[in-house]
Amino acid sequence: MPNINWNAANYKNNFSFVPTYGEAVLDLLTKPKGSYIVDLGCGNGTLTKKLFERGYHVIGIDDSAEMIAQAKTDCPDIEFVTGNALDFMLEHKADAIFSNAVFHWIDESKQQKMLCNIYNQLNEGGELVCEFGGSGCAEHVHRALEQCFLERGFEYKRVFYFPTIGQYASMLEKAGFRIEYATLFDRPTVQKGANGLADWIEMFVKKPFEGIDESTRNEIIGETVNRLKSSLYINGEWIVDYVRIRFRAVKNNIVT
Predict the structure, then answer these.
(1) How far apart are CA 12 and CA 169, in angstroms?
(2) pLDDT at 256 (0 to 100)
(3) 113: exposed, middle or buried (C-beta count within 10 Å: 0-12, 13-18, 19+)?
(4) What's CA 39's distance to the chain center, in Å?
(5) CB 179 within 8 A of CB 173
(6) Which of 8, 144, 159, 247 has a Cα at 20 to 30 A from 254?
């Protein structure tokens, strides 16, 4: 839910792997049909629709007006609202909050605030089920970009937060959650088309290029692609070295 102007149509057409992989995360939910589920950072609503089809009462929340507009068009029977993970408020507390490929966009300094807000929006015994980028995610790409920036006298700002299980578990527990499931795993991810890596950089690595002219930006992307071809272009396909982290955490019941 970063402050980025998303190309919702391009995202839907060329990066559908994001919600496709996210479908497996849905299986971590333990709440019965009819439960109130929030899809936090719902994007274009693809997984919100999957939740709806599983029989949940669901609402999608995203900070991107472009994505919310796309979601409302594609899923007219589902409620979608614009909101930020740090301060969204629910009229009625949720039985579960689900989130896929979102939390790594939140600044590290704001993660604890986000988790505390999520905790406060859940019923007692409610669960947080999430997947996002973990330690080492896309490191080959970020390292190559960093080097290309440095050679031109620029600083490559690492705006993503990719934690270890230990780092994130401590924050979840500090917010009041009991962790029931946690895993960190490699997930090499195929990109669409011959320009897959360049397209990935242009879609997901926007902030570091702010203030850099278009010609230099294109030069950096092209050089990064060339440097990584020997390692990430495999059998005619571009593969980004994703690492994912998953959690299911439960809001502790209050014992009196």
Answers:
(1) 32
(2) 33
(3) middle
(4) 12
(5) yes
(6) 247
Residue type, 254: I
* Residue environment code for 46-73, b if the CB has 16+ CB neighbours within 10 A, otherwise e: bbbbbbbeeebebbbbbbbebbbebbbe
Task: List the beta strands (DSSP E) in the chain.
Answer: 36-40, 57-62, 79-82, 94-100, 122-133, 177-190, 233-234, 237-251
Name the token pair of 207: 């902030």
Q: 188 and 130 in contact (C-beta within 8 Å)?
A: no
- Interval 60-74: pLDDT, tens: 999 999 999 999 999
Cα(18)–Cα(12) distance, rounded to whole angstroms? 9
Count of CB atoms within 10 A of residue 116's CB?
A: 15
Question: Which pLDDT score is estimated for 255?
Answer: 41
3-state secondary structure of 79: strand
- For residue 79, the cross-strand partners are 59
> In terms of Cα–Cα distance, which of 45, 39, 49, 46 is closest to 97?
39
What gap in Å lies between CA 172 and CA 113, rounded to an integer?
A: 11
24: DSSP letter = H
6: pLDDT confidence band, cut at 50, 70 and 90? very low
Mean pLDDT of the chain: 91
Confidence label for 252 from pLDDT (cuts 50, 70 and 90): confident
Q: What is the dihedral of CA 25, 254, 174, 120, to 10 degrees?
A: 70
Over residues 176-200, the mean pLDDT reads: 95
